[in-house]
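In this section we turn from sequence analysis to structure. A common task in structural bioinformatics is to predict how a protein folds when a small molecule is present, because the ligand can shape the pocket around it. The inputs are simple: the amino acid sequence and a SMILES string for the ligand, here zinc ion. Study the lines below before reading on.
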Amino acid sequence: MRIKEFQSEFEVIAPSAIAWKNDNVGLLVGRENDEIQNIVVALDLTMDVAKESKQKNANVIITHHPLLFHPVKNITTDSRIGEILLYLIENRINLFAAHTNLDSVKWGVNFALANVLELKNVEILSPLNNSLSTISVFVPRNFIEKVADAMHSAGGGTFTKYDQCSYRGEGIGTFRAMNNANPFIGTIGKKETVEEIRLEMLVEDWKINTVVSAMVQVHPYEEVAYNITPLKNNNTEYGLGAIGTLPKTMKQESFLALLKKKLGATALRYSGRSKSIKRVAVCGGSGAELIRDAISHHADVMVTADLKYHTFQDFEEKILLVDAGHYETEHIVLPILAKKITQILRHTGHNGKVYLTKHSTNPVHIF
Ligand SMILES: [Zn+2]
């Protein structure tokens, strides 16, 4: 399996279109035509991870944090990034990143965090907005199934637990073919009326081009009439953070002890008053921007990382805030990511191994 085939399979389970607009995901270093041998998965790319990959004959490294994020002005051994990039290129190791797209899927970082805490009824805390549209197309009756099937196969009308969703309304279409036209129905210069069905389906924005081209390909008309309408609805399938409820109410101290144990954290920083915990919001990594969402969803606690002194202060009276560490709140996704990657390889008959790095890439130590 080549990297480009892997990329298109990965796109299906964690679309790059849902990543933060300034993020840097996908193939960061390498050649998309390289055949994949083995893969190493890590939260961050360090020189230890790069060397481990070479030892394991892994020519692909998949990390959560993109090594290339800020502009790089030179690639020399004077910087950590430069040294790693040189090593990758000299050893023909490819680097692929799944960052905020991995944060925003229901099998990603935040749902992993929710699962570790055994939360129930887990939902996205801050759903993706401005990412849905409807496509409406006018189809002669005999072609309705053909057109609908083509659109569904290209990803149209799939949402949450349902696929092949569409709406069909009957009506009359009119047209007059002019001199150089080649009409499927009717004659040049004569006004025609045709029984048509208005076929409408929901499409995620990043699939619009694929769905439209599949539709146009099987539609019988020379000029296909269709509308694309952007929606204001939230896309509840994708987004940042997660929220759910504990199987039973816990005292704050017991909850903190559970969290520490499940995440393998050495220490937790927290603020807020001692109270009972039932509803839990989580956001792996830097999630301070979601604290207000957690409060508006009536969370008793928000578990995240990288919280500042004044952030703790600002919300002290409103919610229990817990900073469990950036690495600690994210590393739990790695086995799940490795499993998904293995499924992609096996699905195409590839026998390559997917290794979780043996190195902790956490740069922060607690004394
Ligand atoms: Zn992170």
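The CA atoms of residues 132 and 204 lie 5 Å apart. As an exercise, try to locate the residues that line the zinc ion site and compare them with your own expectations.
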